[in-house]
Here is the input.
Amino acid sequence: MRYAVLSDIHSNLVALQAVLADLSEEEIDAYLCLGDIVGYGARPNQCCDIIRDLEAVCVRGNHDSAAVDPARAQWFTAPARACLLWTTDQLRDDNLEFLGSLPTVQIVDDHITICHGSIPDPDHYTVRPVDALMSFRAMKTPIAFFGHTHYSEWFVWSGDSEMPEEFPMPDGGELTEEVSRLYLVNPGAVGQPRDRNERASYAIYDADEGRVEIRRVSYDIALAAEQMKDAGLPEAMYARLWMGV
Ligand code: ZN
Here is the structure.
């Protein structure tokens, strides 16, 4: 099985289309989506529609939850909250229902765990090895994928008393699984990368070969920003796209 793993699309249709164009030459059996389909960007319904058409196996991110339940938007920064309230207003009922129906953790094909922030807590940022340890201890599969930080990277753990090792991959990279180790992989953000690389990020996981590839894809940032500007979304939220922060 070959999986395309997408996270943190954040209503950035231009970036999502660039990633799907990059995938068009690949044989993909299934799509996995790690949450935050919406929030920040200007095309929430179109992004939900594409993910639903792909029949992606999805989990719900914190922005998806807040779009469905605006009371949760109070925990976000003012510009992020403005985007969320706009998003809730834009989303069709069927897409609100879709986002609200998503679980926070899923096991796929008995082999892969997907979550948003971490396995025990969808809102927790997995930034350091000690954060990764929380997920490793809760994992029941050899590999898991997470998002939320918008950094492309992976953590490797050999079990026992050692701390996990962290491998940041801001320019993409490849990982080959070893049987005795556990892997926690962040494919990076499609719609709003924050690892100082402005290109969209995603991963391909070949489960038969035990190989993960993280890829970075250029997209028309000016167009995505223009769509946000036209929608009246805060400038801070599209200015950052060029910087990859
Ligand atoms: Zn996010």
